[in-house]
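Dear support,

Our group has been running a series of protein-ligand predictions, and this particular one with adenosine-5'-triphosphate is the one our PI (initials K.S.) wants archived with full inputs and outputs. We had some confusion internally about which version of the output was final, so please treat the block below as the authoritative record. The input we submitted was:
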Amino acid sequence: MKSEEEPETSVWPRKTWTFLSEVRRRSPLIQCITNFVSMDLMANTLLSAGASPAMIHSSDEIPDFTPHVHALCINIGTLSGDWFPAMKLAAELSSKLGKPWVLDPVAVGASRFRLNACLELLKLKPAVIRGNGSEIIALSKASMESTKGVDSSHESIDALESAKALAEATGAIVAVSGAIDIVTDGKRVVGANNGVAMMQRITATGCSVTALIAAFVSVDQLHALEATASALSVFGVAGEMGMSNANGPASLRMHMIDSLYGLDEASVLSRVNITSL
Ligand SMILES: Nc1ncnc2c1ncn2[C@@H]1O[C@H](COP(=O)(O)OP(=O)(O)OP(=O)(O)O)[C@@H](O)[C@H]1O
Ligand SMILES: Cc1ncsc1CCO
Ligand SMILES: [Mg+2]
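Confirmed final output from the archive:
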């Protein structure tokens, strides 16, 4: 069968396996400026996927350190005034050096402070923005929407038009997590259909998949949409496989990390479920 005739259902799993294999082969260095809640799960997610995390956030060392990283992840989850200049400095340096950086606008609709911070960060050209439905709607409209803090009060599909508009306005790939993870460049839209609902019951799973997106994009910057959908799908597959041994959120957290570490080609090829929307 010629590749252009190959069904989408088999093309995406192979792409996804290539991304995961490249992350494991190259072990990209991912700088994470992230909230205190997520640091542990985020670092362990990156390590179990084969990448190399570094939670380095001081403005005093960013000029020395950031030029050596393969990608940067910025997450505003526990934002405070003294951290914000470091986020801007690292994002600015990354953009100047042509390194991809990824934004997680945690609870962006919860305060004027968070909204203004994200709007400033958007000017520094993130390659990817990943949030839940409520976050992407608030950021796209630049408004303080009704919000449940860091959790979403919207389904991911409710944020589809907001995601497209945000992608068009910023030039970034925009991903909305949820039952279906939606990924768009403003024109193309794909959905990653993996994962289990209990992943929402573990804090910082969204933060961690954003860092995984940074790792996937770092190995193929020119295909950021494909990298983003693949990272979301791989994380979802790890959740599905982990779920078969889990009794609740705490044991799912452990088994999900183990599943991500042990994920093999056969499981990726049979389980990855990414389709055009
Ligand atoms: N109903 C669901 N079914 C399957 N997977 C889901 C569901 N809801 C969320 N997920 C998955 O859980 C992970 C976290 O997504 P979520 O939307 O909860 O992020 P978030 O709100 O930013 O989380 P956090 O702020 O705690 O990091 C993603 O990988 C997503 O695909
Ligand atoms: C619970 C929580 N509060 C601020 S950041 C964070 C982690 C999930 O986003
Ligand atoms: Mg979040």
